[in-house]
């Protein structure tokens, strides 16, 4: 930031000093030494205060801890539900037809529930917003591991059918086989 006589100067804007009108491009075209020669001082920009709006209303003004706990617990449950929904079809298939859920899928679903329970317990145990921020931004909170790709369901019978299509307008017929 550039200042002259206590006033902030802006690049690409004309200014007047000691009766001299300086054009709008003067600040861009001059060196720091030339600027300092007429009294312009370069000062560092004042950093803008930062706060994580997920947890604070403003700097040093935290949101209500109980509401934050409820919100982050809800997010954990939503994530767990989303991860479990990807393999729900195995459970439905077992309930409807008796086909056993593969062991690795059952194990992974158990892991997801365990992760969810651990995260919910950790959130419930924090006593300050700072502790919650620390936990929620940690690798422990964000670790859910990858879900293995579902195994393809093997079909027991392969069928081959063929149909004859007759074309109109003098074209010949063709046979299409589908598998």
Properties at a glance:
7 helices; alpha+beta; 16% strand; disordered C terminus; 179 residues; 2 domains
Outline the structure in words.
This protein is α+β, with helices and mostly antiparallel strands. Helix content is 42%, strand content 16%. The chain folds into two domains: 2-42, no CATH class; 56-142, no CATH class. A three-stranded antiparallel sheet has the order 2-1-5. The protein has a two-stranded antiparallel ribbon with strand order 3-4. A two-stranded antiparallel sheet has the order 6-7. Helix 3 (65-85) runs antiparallel to helix 5 (103-125). The model is unreliable at 173-179 (pLDDT under 50).
Q: Short summary of the structure?
A:
With 179 residues, the protein is an alpha+beta fold. 42% of the residues lie in helices and 16% in strands. The longest helix is centred in the middle third of the chain and has 23 residues, at 103-125.
SSE layout:
Blueprint (H helix, E strand, L loop, with lengths): L1 E3 L2 E3 L5 E3 L2 E3 L3 H4 L2 H6 L3 E2 L13 E3 L2 E2 L2 H21 L2 H10 L5 H23 L3 H8 L2 H4 L18 E5 L8 E5 L1
Largest sheet: 3 strands, antiparallel
Tally of individual helices = 7
For the largest sheet, list the strands in their spatial order: 2-1-5
What is the rounded Rg? Answer: 34 Å
**Which structural class is indicated by helix and strand composition?**
alpha+beta
Helical amount: 40-55%
Order of H and E elements: EEEEHHEEEHHHHHEE
The general outline is: elongated
Q: Uncertain regions: pLDDT < 50 for 5+ in a row?
A: 173-179
Q: How many distinct beta strands?
A: 9
